[in-house]
Structure to design on (366 residues):
């Protein structure tokens, strides 16, 4: 009945299996990679099924051989665009059902190819800020390396993160140069392939790189990271009052991008809605995520706004045609640098400097 099942245990590294029919699964790292834990890479993944939808996977844990699962969009409508979807789950589970698999048919109907990332989890002993982020960055490399074989436009490869998944997508949108330099070594088949995403989606996010650390061990001299002038455009969405902490994190990312003058950053902060899984009152819309209609409220249509944004920036046009996003990034690279006071060179508009902490940001955190 095509019910997804984990692969068998063998003496070789675990072979991740497709969670949807037709999926093409590619491990992110070769056997023996220093990114992998040799003592655990043979362990099988563990699936949890959706109790209300028989045969539908809900989440995965025990991921030690991270991978991507590629699903082609409608070839008759192929735009060449690929979206790497990174599910949430608080770094304890990977909710690849509602924040992964559901997007395959949705994107396919618009000629968009879908890539489901299976990244390593904090619950299984990994550092989300190091290991899971490296999985996301490597995923971009691998997808771009397979662009010709999968009929993708290598200039239309983006990443969209949900909740904890956004904690992978946002650093991937900032730190690709460091990752590429670190991995440009002999013998790495993807060493020369860029990990820069062409667009970034930030959906009801966890803390971003612009969230100041809190607690007794927080670094007093912490500074927000610098923002490269060729940082890709971002689409940001969250509920506001009903998901306040995640809304603050979303706003921190938006404010930092806006202050740095990054082109084509769009944010939708909805009046009603809650974070997936939150407890709500009897008169409140359900706290569901992904593509769910959330009881018919406006927040349930965010994916239509996302498609409009992609269309505006040229990602839904024909493969091989330069996107508006790429043109605007190129133009931004030629603009004068901002000075210490946030002012551009002659004729430029004043603005807070790139890399400065978000103005007026509210500190929040777990």
């Amino acid at each position: 009945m095509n019910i997804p099942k984990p692969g068998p245990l063998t003496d070789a590294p675990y072979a991740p299996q497709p969670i949807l029919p037709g999926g093409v699964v590619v491990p992110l790292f070769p056997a023996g990679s220093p990114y992998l834990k040799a003592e655990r890479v043979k362990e099988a993944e563990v699936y949890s099924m959706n109790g209300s939808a028989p045969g539908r996977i809900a989440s995965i844990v025990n991921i030690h051989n991270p991978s991507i699962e590629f699903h082609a969009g409608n070839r008759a409508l192929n735009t060449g665009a690929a979206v790497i979807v990174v599910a949430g789950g608080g770094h304890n589970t990977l909710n690849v059902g509602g924040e992964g698999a559901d997007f395959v048919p949705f994107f396919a109907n618009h000629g968009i190819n879908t890539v489901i990332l299976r990244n390593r989890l904090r619950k299984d002993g990994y550092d989300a800020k190091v290991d899971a982020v490296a999985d996301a960055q490597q995923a971009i490399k691998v997808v771009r390396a397979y662009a010709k074989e999968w009929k993708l436009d290598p200039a239309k490869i983006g990443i969209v993160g949900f909740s904890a998944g956004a904690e992978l997508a946002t650093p991937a949108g900032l730190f690709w140069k460091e990752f590429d330099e670190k991995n440009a070594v002999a013998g790495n088949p993807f060493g020369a392939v860029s990990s820069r995403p062409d667009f970034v989606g930030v959906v009801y996010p966890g803390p971003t790189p612009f969230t100041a650390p809190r607690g007794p061990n927080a670094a007093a001299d912490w500074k927000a990271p610098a923002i490269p002038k060729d940082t890709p455009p971002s689409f940001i969405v969250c509920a506001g009052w009903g998901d306040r902490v995640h809304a603050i994190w979303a706003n921190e990312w938006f404010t930092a991008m806006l202050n740095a003058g990054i082109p084509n950053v769009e944010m939708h902060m909805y009046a009603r809605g809650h974070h997936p899984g939150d407890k709500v009152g009897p008169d409140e819309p359900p706290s569901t995520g992904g593509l769910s209609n959330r009881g018919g409220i406006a927040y349930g249509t965010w994916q239509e706004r996302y498609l409009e944004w992609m269309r505006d920036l040229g990602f839904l046009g024909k493969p091989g045609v330069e996107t508006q996003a790429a043109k605007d990034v190129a133009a931004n690279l030629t603009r004068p640098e901002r000075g210490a006071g946030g002012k551009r060179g002659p004729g430029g508009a004043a603005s807070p400097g790139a890399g400065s902490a978000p103005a007026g940001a509210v500190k929040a955190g777990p």
User: Anything to note?
Assistant: The chain has one domain: 24-211+223-333. The longest strand covers residues 113-118. Residues 24-211+223-333 form a domain with the Rossmann fold fold (CATH 3.40.50.1820). Confidence is low (pLDDT under 50) at residues 344-366.
